[in-house]
Amino acid sequence: MGRSGMKKQTTNRDHLHKKAIQLQRTANIVKEAGDNTRADQLLELKGKLENKQLTLSFCGHFSAGKSTMINHLCGTALLPSSPIPTSANVVSITNGEKGAEVIHRTEQGLVKQEKSLEQVQQYCLNGRDIETVRLRYLLPFLGRHTILLDTPGIDSTDDAHHRATESALHLADVVFYVMDYNHVQSEVNLTFAKQMQERGKPLYLIVNQIDKHREEELTFERFKESAYEAFRNWEINPGGWLFLSLKEPAHPNNEWTTFTALIQHLIDKREELLAYNIDQAATYVLSEHVKWTGEQQEERKVQLKEKLNGESCLQARKELEELQERLCQADAEAVELEKKLKQELQSIIDHAQITPPGTRELAARLMESIRPSFKVGWLNRAQQTAAERQRRLLAFYEDYRVQVESQLEWHVQDAVKKAIREQQVSSDREDLLKETETLQADITPEWLQSRIQADSALDNAYTLNYMKKTAGEIRQIIRTKTWGLLERIAQRARDRAASLREQSRARLSELQEQLAAEEELRHMAQRERAYEQSLRGLLEPLEAVMPRLPDLARLTTEAGKPAYGVVNATPVMDAILRVSHGESANCAAPADEERVAAAQSRGTQRSRVERTAARLRQAEALIREVPAMRTIARSLRDKAERLADRTFTVALFGAFSAGKSSFANALLGERVLPVSPNPTTAAINTIMAPNEAWPHGTAKIKMKSRETLTADVLHSLDVLGIHSTTLEEALLQIKELDSSHIVGKGKPHVTFLKAVDKGWEETSGHLGEEIRADIEGFSSYVAQEHKSCFVEEIGLHYASLLLEEGVRIVDTPGADSINARHTGVAFNYIKNADAVWFVTYYNHAFSQANREFLLQLGRVKDSFELDKMFFVVNATDLASSKKELQEVLKHVAFNLQQHGIRQPKLYPVSSHKAIEAKQGGNIEALHVSGMDVFEGDFNKFTFEELTDISIRAANQELERAVHVLSTWIDNAREDEAERINRASLLRKTETAVLSILDQVTIETELKELTKEIRELLYYVKQRNSYRFNELYNLAFNPSSFRESGNRLKEVLLQVWQELFESIQFDLQQEVLATTLRVENTLNRLAQRKYVELGDRVKERLDDFEYETYESLSCPPWEGHVSLIVEGVSDKMLVQPFKNSKSIFEGEGKAKLRDQLERLLEKSVENWVREQTVLMIDIYQSFAKDCLEELRNKQKVAVKEHVEGILEALEMKFPLDRIVHMNQQLEQLVKV
């Protein structure tokens, strides 16, 4: 080594030594502050630096293949791997002597134990009691300084798993994020990758299990570009992408050698990566510590922020100035009010013109009449004179009163009323307004007369003086009354001013506290910034920028030489799949004769159906002209039509990317439905046989109406906490939508809304229309989100043997939160379909959406007369061993039983191998795929069991027709006298029987129905209570808070909304399941009543036969009751927590759970009460209608029975014709 090289090496050692000292010093300060977690992390970084350890971390969701990938790298199965979730804690692997170290959590602290590798795998599965597992194995490619790190699935809802992953990420120098091929674009992946990029981690994205890719369904280039675009949209720019297949090493797109070469190059760049990550990790740890220090005063900060009440310092100061100004004006306004009012009223009183000339003239005439010389008339002059004086007095009074009222009283009253209203006087305002009506002079004729001095001259001068004097007195009366009222008004103004002054003083004190609080917060922030700067000043950076990462395009390995570990040989899949079907590995496929026999069996059933329908049509033709057999004829015709046009509706369910569409394609034998690993918002697709109007390959695409789309969009916005009232307003809000802050179940709603925005311009013009499309157009409306989000349903007509047998396949959207609002639609398919197929994916058997749906299937399974549910585990060709396959099937069966699905019909299937086998005509390969076993059982159920039920019902109706005609014949053959007597008796019996039927009630049945509803809904409340803890933990899980940052309040509100939606969804599902049980009870009671009615008739009418009871079809349940929870506030949600991490540390989460549980318990109780009343009302009403229908049905049957017997007794129908008709019917029964 040259002198310069030695000098550089010495310089690097000095830098590293200096950095280690800085980390130690900083850790000591952090520890003194009380933050042991971050202090330990800094010390771990110091140890990492001193040991020069490069850590390659493997992260990803459960079952993405992280552990298997590490095993392949190491060339041996060091880690447990399975499609069933395995790793539960952090496992590190280093090069060294074979062995393991397990760190246990105990009450005394962490305890280390040495274990053998043979013992250690069980510890990797224990995330509760084990802190970490450290494995050593002879792995020369790792050298002395490289560590491989395996972490728990990031999508776990377990707090311990979350803490385990977080505790190790600061040590990661490079993160390999592993994704399953079918779930690349999940929100979990995007969120975690974004977080790693923001933390400055060199990041590689690995798409694993690309052997699932089918080029004929989607080109690999299109798949890759779609994945690239999804991550670009989140502004994620990884160091590179790798596409791997551990199952098929020779896969043309497998980049395993590039991957192993990359690892070698990264190991070669160990020192650069180490220096960079030490800087980045230390910076991140310090920032977390600074957050922690701030959080220690969070309680005080919350108190101060509560005082601020969302107001700024500027707002407080502005309000303070305004209050002070109002305080100065308050007293002055009260004084000014009284002064101003007195001036105004004095002017009104003084200037009121109450003695106009006309009034004075009437006064003069009155004075004239009072003079002694005044005389009127000749006869009875004294009386006439007195009368005239009285008339003139009253005339003067009326005029004077009007003048005083109109010119003085009204103006004074109006002025006072106006003052009262303007001053907004307090509680006695109405009383004061009424009191203004008393501002009157109250003059009377007597009062006016009393003011006249009879001994005066009573001339014009006196009259003027009289008017002036009375006017003055009237003004004084008004003035006195008004001034009294005015004083009260002024006092109210003074009281109001005093109250305002007191209020202002209180608010002033509050504003002063706010200003002081803001000042204290500002000082806190300054101290925290100063503390952070002082800490950062202790750490000098080793490297400023991320090292240049290897160019994946240039990486190569020696041709044919495997890098590092040897990929385990993939077992022969045919042998593995045979085991799943209960065969040995050498067992051959069923002979062709068996398949021919199966096909012949289907042909035989079809022939039976056609023959039975033909017999029914012949029988209907024989009796249709007989009036008394109209009901039987109609029943025969209906049953014949149903048999001839028989269809079997199959509802296909499963989560997104579970392989539903590929499974349906395998059954059809062609790739009809588009298959995509990308999540879609797909509508309901029905695949059925073609007809004249809709030939092979045509699709009817029914677009959502504007009202439906509006409801969907507003619902999704509402889930995100965004409220809108119109579609136009909502579309504007979607454009401004920031998805980075959305957590949990809100994320699929963002995807839906973005799809609406993208497709609006192209598709909005077709809302409410039906579009005719070909296969290509059909595929685009199914798979392209920006089109499918506008679609309500699609009907595809396709020529296929299965479909032409009458099977209709309804392919439903994946079970996710977008469709939660339409749970009634899915439930109706479960309820009304002839069969239900539930498809789950081999290495992702149970998502949360799956679990909710399976829970619903478990609720209703026992309500069906036949077990019509078929459970399919698709993609079993991914199994790596016979044992693994059996474990997965056992895991699936166990989970189904946990969800109430006992003894499930479970089918392991490879739809990929099945469709290849069908298209290649390979019978043995079809058997290996497992599809023939499923098809055999489904065909037996559909074409035998269901068909037999229809045929039995048809034969019963034929036998009833024969019995009725036989009864007629027996009656017709009696002698004439007996026939006449019987006819008379029959008519009387008919009247009595019809009367009996009219009197029948269902009070007993209604009581039973009510009791059943009450009990069922009581247990709904109980089960919902039991599920609360589970739903709470699902909502309040670590992944929901991973990026909460300073948005804790916002995230808590979203998480509460998610919990609320989950509980409401659970209640809705319970109600739907309850309706099915109630309908079964209703049918049981209705059948009992129907049979009771029929038997009561048979007691009085010999040989009476009635039609077999057919189950009532209840309308879809629409009785929605909203769950209302009161008492949940922002403050209540935030109060128990300092930050997002404190949610999972301490008792805050448990305390909030207890609070919410109490509130919800009361709310659910109210909900159950309302739901019970509604359900009883609806079903009792339906039951009463059903009774009337059944009553009328029996009455019609009675009338037709009597009519037929009478025709026979009265010989209205030729006997020989009846006999011949009966013989023909008997022949049809025997066929």
Automatic annotation (TrEMBL):
GO MF annotation list: GTP binding; GTPase activity
The reply on keyword Nucleotide-binding is yes
Q: What is this protein called?
A: Dynamin family protein
PANTHER family tied to this protein: SARCALUMENIN (PTHR10465:SF0), TRANSMEMBRANE GTPASE FZO1 (PTHR10465)
The species this protein was found in = Paenibacillus larvae subsp. larvae DSM 25430
Subcellular compartments: Membrane
Residue ranges of domain Dynamin N-terminal in the record: 58-209, 650-874
Q: Name one GO cellular component term.
A: membrane
Q: Per its UniProt record, what InterPro entries does this chain match?
A: Dynamin_N (IPR045063), Mitofusin_fam (IPR027094), P-loop_NTPase (IPR027417)
Coiled-coil stretches noted in the UniProt entry, renumbered to this chain: 494-528
Keywords noted in UniProt: Coiled coil, GTP-binding, Hydrolase, Membrane, Nucleotide-binding
The source's domain of life comes to Bacteria
